[in-house]
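Marked as duplicate of an earlier ticket. Keeping the data here for the record.
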Amino acid sequence: MSYPPSAQTAIDHLKTNFPYASFSLGTWVSKEGEKLLVIKKKGISVCRKGYKHIYLLSATSSVLGSDTEPFASSGDVLVDAKGNIPDTRSPTLARYSTSSSSPASTSSVQSDYRRLSVDLTNAINTNLGTSITPTSLPFAILILLISISYSYKLLTTILRFSFLLIPVYLTLSNTVPPSSTFEPKKMLKRVLRKEDLPPDHPEKPKGWLSSIANRAMASVAGEALTALGYTVTMKSILGCFKVANVRLDSNGVNV
């Protein structure tokens, strides 16, 4: 028996891609006596009714049935792209239209998405030690994207300012004095004179007489403290600054 070219193309597609399913074409006689087409699998019809046209929809690789015309904009999905057959016990067969994909394909995509979500969640929890669930995965990805965005903005800001800091760094690194120029006694006396305290500090000398007396006491105290020796330790900070630590042997105090 000869069949329409569209139906023959559809059945050839099924036989090529699913040779073990034993798909074939058959006829269905309606109450009006009209011969309609059906798809059979291993000799059993997979259709709830017959169709005037059965054709292959290349966009989804599914075989559809239609009562209007071949390659209609909508029709019943008889066999999907994976060779699956929609549930014929359902009151309405799965439908395809140009405005939406077939439910069978949508269900497959949803299943693949759920499986991917579980695999991705397990990988994140294993490597990061987190406890993300598949349902909270979209929110975690959103937070991650926001964090990456802010990190990128922060990095670009740091790089932008770094170009301004390079001249400052070069100036400081080239003008920092050598360690040999540091005079421990002189600096110790300066500290004891309390000249570098803020003007409103209660220990700041008030008046010229108080300043002279304070200088004399600082000089005597400085000589006494360093009489038994001292140890100077210099620490360089990024090559731009130097911090001096003076340890007095007389009382073991670090200045």
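See parent ticket for discussion. The two ends are 109 Å apart (CA to CA).
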